[in-house]
Design brief:
The chain has a domain at 26-113: Jelly Rolls. It is built from one helix and seven strands. The protein has one helix at residues 16-20, and strands spanning 28-32, 40-47, 52-57, 63-76, 80-84, 88-91, 96-113. Strands 1, 2, 3, 4, 5, 6 and 7 form a seven-stranded antiparallel beta sheet that branches. The longest helix has 5 residues, at 16-20. The termini are far apart.
Length: 127
């Protein structure tokens, strides 16, 4: 059997300038990685000026963000981290976080291993 049908190759998936040209009031995920057979989840999140992503516990996986545009703060359980264009931040799994956008909004690139979908399987055996 020929494995070339399952092999994936590098590909251009987006343009940062194009993503950042979204309207200033855009909110939420304004770009995401589309190939369905991928091992990563990536997206660009936009938070309009003065708005926030409220305090929450992150997923059970590590996340890295890179600020692409604007500024704001990341509030954690221990400190407040200033975010500005070019800031790179590691968010450990299950860490508590709150993002607050500054006066020009905040847009950041987020990447983490792909979350597993719901699995259909057998229930655990009972003794």
């Amino acid at each position: 059997m020929n494995d070339s049908t399952h092999k994936q190759f590098p590909q251009l998936v987006g343009d940062v300038a194009e993503v950042l040209s979204a309207p200033a009031g855009a909110s939420g995920s304004i770009w995401k990685l589309e190939p369905h057979t991928r091992g990563l989840d990536c997206n660009v999140i936009a938070i309009p000026a003065g708005e926030e992503i409220g305090q929450h516990e992150g997923p059970d996986l590590d996340v890295v963000i890179v600020v692409l545009d604007g500024s704001g703060v990341l509030e954690t359980e221990e400190e407040t981290i200033n975010l500005e264009n070019g800031s790179m931040v590691w968010l450990p799994k299950l860490s508590v976080r709150r993002f607050v956008a500054g006066e020009n909004g905040l847009r950041y690139f987020s990447v983490h291993t792909r979350k597993r979908g719901l699995q259909i399987g057998r229930p655990p055996a009972h003794d």
